[in-house]
């Protein structure tokens, strides 16, 4: 089975994992990550969400409203709550995945502490619009959530640079990975110092047991993503047997992993260091895969507008995502009227067409304080999107397009 995601890991990461150096590997990883992102500092955390909690604290925010997307990874509002603040959700802009910045501006009150601008699925946030807001409300911090983008650029300007700080997630589903882990990057010397002193005060040193757990996890990752094994795991996953390992949230609880306050291990930092060397290769391959999808799945109407596949039957159609220069395509997400049918189609053809964010956060039990009708775009995406496989390896899209040929979808479904 062709998985919908796959970490780009090779033998060098495995060697790095077991090669104890005696140096401060975490500091070395931070330095090369900062360098890669063109920022002065990077501070490592066990998860991206831990980084966000500590960042909000380091900025002195408490009992504040933090504006964030309604359609994003649920760990983001969880982290806001854990930092002692309150999330304020904003719907997606129509036709886009990213948060509607006009609505975000309207939601600003005297008690707003920060806006978390997420470049979802690798689509860069509109930095021009964001800067207008920043000028008008200089007291509101802009935090870039780059967990999906890893340096997407808006008209040539990398998104992570424009804000007080940026957060990144580094688990195996992200563009770069250090097994687990997260980073906060910033150009501010004082913020970096505050992040590090809070980390020292609130986090504990990782134990050898955690390193061993991470090593075992890494060792299972390699075979898991091989075709036949992945197919089997996918079957188990669908039956619910793997929920303990793969389900990262519970609809009704705001929680954190048990070890969210245990620092990143040196082992993870070494894997991350090795993985960084693949960055350009990974981004290039993801962009190529996306381009191949755009090229091959697009059908031009006679009137010039574009629809895809079965033009007469909405249920069989799927809409391609926006094509934006500077996007890094952490995911290639299409919208469809009949998601289950496509998922079954994928299964029959050995292609995993899973989904990533199948919830509209304000509708979740844990947050159901607001009227979900206020988030119509997010609610639709939650029900109608599927992900086509995209990852950092070579020739992925060619493999899919040739092998079972998505182009023949029109006839075969
Ligand atoms: C993955 C992710 C994060 C950070 O996640 P962790 O699992 O805590 O590292 C933050 N924001 C978004 C949008 C993400 O997808």
What does this 3D model show about the protein?
The protein has 16 helices and 14 strands. The chain is an alpha/beta fold and 413 residues long. The strands form four sheets. The chain has a seven-stranded mixed β-sheet with strand order 1-9-8-5-4-2-3. A hairpin with a 5-residue loop joins strand 10 and strand 11. Helix 12 packs parallel to helix 15. The two termini are 19 Å apart. Pyridoxal-5'-phosphate binds next to helix 3 and helix 4.
Architecture blueprint of SSEs:
Elements (H helix, E strand, L loop, with lengths): L10 H8 L6 H13 L3 E5 L2 H11 L6 E5 L5 H8 L3 E5 L10 H6 L5 E7 L8 H10 L4 E5 L7 E2 L2 E2 L6 E5 L12 E5 L2 H14 L5 H17 L2 H13 L3 H4 L19 H11 L2 H19 L1 E2 L5 E2 L10 E2 L12 E5 L2 H10 L27 H9 E4 L7 H8 L5 H4 L1
Parallel strand pairs: 2-3, 2-4, 4-5, 5-8
Antiparallel strand pairs: 1-9, 6-7, 8-9, 10-11, 12-13, 13-14
Helix pairs in contact: 1-11, 2-11, 3-4, 3-7, 12-15
């Amino acid at each position: 089975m062709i998985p919908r995601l796959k970490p780009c890991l090779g033998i060098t990461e495995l060697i790095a994992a077991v090669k104890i150096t005696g140096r401060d590997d975490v500091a070395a990883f931070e330095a090369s990550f900062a360098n890669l992102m063109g920022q002065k500092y990077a501070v490592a955390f066990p998860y991206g969400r831990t980084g966000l909690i500590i960042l909000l604290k380091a900025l002195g925010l408490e009992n504040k409203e933090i504006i964030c997307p309604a359609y994003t990874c649920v760990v983001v509002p969880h982290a806001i709550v854990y930092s002692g603040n309150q999330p304020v959700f904003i719907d997606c802009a129509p036709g886009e995945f990213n948060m509607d910045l006009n609505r975000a501006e309207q939601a600003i009150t005297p008690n707003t502490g920060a806006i978390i601008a997420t470049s979802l699925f690798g689509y860069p946030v509109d930095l021009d619009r964001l800067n207008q807001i920043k000028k008008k409300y200089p007291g509101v911090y802009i935090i870039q959530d780059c967990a999906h983008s890893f340096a997407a650029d808006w008209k040539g300007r990398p998104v992570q640079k424009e804000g007080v700080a940026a957060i990144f997630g580094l688990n195996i589903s992200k563009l770069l990975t250090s097994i687990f882990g997260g980073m906060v990057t910033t150009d501010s010397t004082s913020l970096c110092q505050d992040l590090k002193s809070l980390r020292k005060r609130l986090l504990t040193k990782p134990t050898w047991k955690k390193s061993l757990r991470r090593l075992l996890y890494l060792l299972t990752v390699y075979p898991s993503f091989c075709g036949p094994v992945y197919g089997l795991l996918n079957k188990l996953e669908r039956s619910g047997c793997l929920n303990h390992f793969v389900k990262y949230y519970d609809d009704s609880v705001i929680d954190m992993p048990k070890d969210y306050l245990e620092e990143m291990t040196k082992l993870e930092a070494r894997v991350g260091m090795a993985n960084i060397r693949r960055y350009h290769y990974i981004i290039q391959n993801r962009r190529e895969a996306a381009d191949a999808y755009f090229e091959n799945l697009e059908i031009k109407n006679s009137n010039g507008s574009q629809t895809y596949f079965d033009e007469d039957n909405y249920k069989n159609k799927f809409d391609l995502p926006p094509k934006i220069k500077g996007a890094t395509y952490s995911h290639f997400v299409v919208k469809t009227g009949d998601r289950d049918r496509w998922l079954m189609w994928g299964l029959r053809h050995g292609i995993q067409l899973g989904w990533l964010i199948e919830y509209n956060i304000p509708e979740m039990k844990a947050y159901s304080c607001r009227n979900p009708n206020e988030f119509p775009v997010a609610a639709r995406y939650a029900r109608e999107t599927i992900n086509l496989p995209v990852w950092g390896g070579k020739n992925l899209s060619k493999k899919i397009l040739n092998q079972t040929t998505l182009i023949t979808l029109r006839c075969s479904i």
